[in-house]
Amino acid sequence: MATTIKHCFCGNGFTFEQCCQPIINGKVDAKNAEALMRSRFTAYVLKNYQYILDTYSSAKRTHITISELSDSAQDTQWLSLQVLTHHCQTHTAQVEFKAFYQVHHTYYVMHELSGFIFESGKWLYNHGTMQKGSGEFSPERNSQCLCRSGKKFKKCCGM
Ligand SMILES: [Zn+2]
Ligand SMILES: [Zn+2]
């Protein structure tokens, strides 16, 4: 029987243990804004809101609570992530991504341009700007299912 490699939730092709887990556990720092962005997506999948809070910039962190974060994502099931672009300057960076998620039986895509800052030796999330094309969408029946099962949508979540 062939063993399938379980890819990290952020979808970059590595396993969770090689990818977002050591960043979320605090064993290593995210090496750039994209790695931090990926680890934050994975933390949302795992409902690790403490990590989400801890990776906001200090200016933003004081205005957010863990219960607000968990309430806002309560019915959200995060499915997959697509990183589109990553631009890095010395102390700021921008990552453009699409995150796919599901609320009950409806599918959504969030297309965001995120801004990051390098603060106290770490990359942190500062702000996000919603891009065109965000909102409800219907997955193609013959495309790969967004839940990363490796099956076609129509034979998996779309049944
Ligand atoms: Zn990852
Ligand atoms: Zn599925």
Could you describe the 3D structure shown?
The protein has helices at residues 20-24, 33-45, 49-54, 58-61, 66-72, and strands spanning 76-88, 92-103, 106-119, 122-130, 135-136. It is α+β, with helices and mostly antiparallel strands. It has a single domain (16-155), classed as Nuclear Transport Factor 2, Chain: A (Roll), CATH 3.10.450.50. Strands 1, 2, 3, 4 and 5 form a five-stranded antiparallel beta sheet that branches. A hairpin with a 2-residue loop joins strand 2 and strand 3 (106-119). The protein starts with 19 loop residues before the first helix and ends in a 23-residue tail after the last strand. The model has no long low-confidence stretch (mean pLDDT 93). One zinc ion binds at residues 8, 10, 12, 19-20, 38, 42. The site of one zinc ion has 5 residues, from loops.
